[in-house]
Amino acid sequence: MKKIYIVRLSDAERTTCLDIIKKLKGSSQKVRRAHILLQADADGPNWKDQDIADAYHCTRQCVENLRKRLVTEGFDIALNGKKRETPPRAKCFDGRQEIAPKTSRSTVWRTLKKCNTSAVCCSLFFDANNTNLREQRKTCFFALFREI
User: Are 121 and 147 in contact (CB under 8 A)?
Assistant: First the structure.
């Protein structure tokens, strides 16, 4: 089968791949991509895609995709992979959100007691950027609300 995307590594790219393989630097995917790129190099061994796939325990399509990514997007993206543009899951809290209607009165009272606040009816707001619960308690903001 005729190859559409021909891999031609420069000397710097070849030494980068050899360093990654020699030191096992980076993730296992990165090391495998470095192996595949070196074997697919037209100025080097120039193996067939199926031979590379058999040698490095991946599919022929994986090798073809790596060739395509090298030619179209560049060496760094081919070696390191693409970074996510969007997170896999949307954030649950986007800033300040009200949690008092979702919690029981006893939980609100316990939190008020720990914060040394003596309000009768309060709505608890917290900053979702603070991951530490103790820090959230220290930075609590209380606002009065009327009961429905």
Answer: yes
Q: Is the dihedral of CA 52, 37, 9, 20 positive or negative?
A: negative
For residues 82 and 22, what is the distance between their CA atoms, to the nearest angstrom? Answer: 23
HEC readout, 19-31? HHHHHCCCCHHHH
> 52 exposed, middle or buried (CB, 10 Å; 0-12, 13-18, 19+)?
buried
pTM tops 0.70: no
Residue 88's contacts (CB-CB under 8 Å, 6 or more residues apart) are none
> At residue 24, what are phi and psi to the nearest 5 degrees?
50, 45
For residue 7, report the phi and psi dihedrals to the nearest 5 degrees: -90, 120
Q: How confident is the model over 57-111, as pLDDT tens digits?
A: 999 999 999 999 999 999 999 999 998 888 888 776 665 555 555 667 677 677 7
Q: Where are the domains of the chain?
A: 11-80, 96-144
Exposure pattern of 30-46 as b/e (b: 16+ CB <10 Å)?
Answer: bbbbbbbbbbbbeeeee
